TrEMBL record:
<feature type="domain" description="Ferrous iron transporter FeoA-like">
    <location>
        <begin position="1"/>
        <end position="78"/>
    </location>
</feature>
<dbReference type="Pfam" id="PF04023">
    <property type="entry name" value="FeoA"/>
</dbReference>
<dbReference type="InterPro" id="IPR007167">
    <property type="entry name" value="Fe-transptr_FeoA-like"/>
</dbReference>
<dbReference type="InterPro" id="IPR038157">
    <property type="entry name" value="FeoA_core_dom"/>
</dbReference>
<protein>
    <submittedName>
        <fullName>Ferrous iron transport protein A</fullName>
    </submittedName>
</protein>
<dbReference type="InterPro" id="IPR008988">
    <property type="entry name" value="Transcriptional_repressor_C"/>
</dbReference>
<keyword id="KW-0408">Iron</keyword>
Length: 79
């Protein structure tokens, strides 16, 4: 499943990221925040508007807001 479909508060591990679907500067920013293959994450909450953007992502002790399009490029497995 992709990260944008992960239910709120369910923990998952990122197993792959389609880096080609992201702009190079956006990919670097995500990697600098620790969002990469093998990272354990959970969705804290989603935006309230129609697109449900942004997604608040829990990674380690941080909460990071990412775009839904970025989350769609990440494949996760439940843990």
């Amino acid at each position: 499943m992709t990260l944008d479909l992960l239910p709120v508060r369910r923990r998952a591990e990122i197993v792959s990221i389609d880096w080609d679907a992201l702009a190079p500067d956006e990919a670097k920013r995500l990697q600098a925040l620790g969002i990469d293959e093998g990272a354990r994450v959970a969705v804290a909450h989603r935006g309230i508007f129609a697109g449900r953007d942004p997604i608040a992502l829990l990674i380690g002790r941080m909460t990071v807001a990412i775009r839904r399009a970025h989350a769609r490029a990440m494949t996760v497995e439940l843990i």
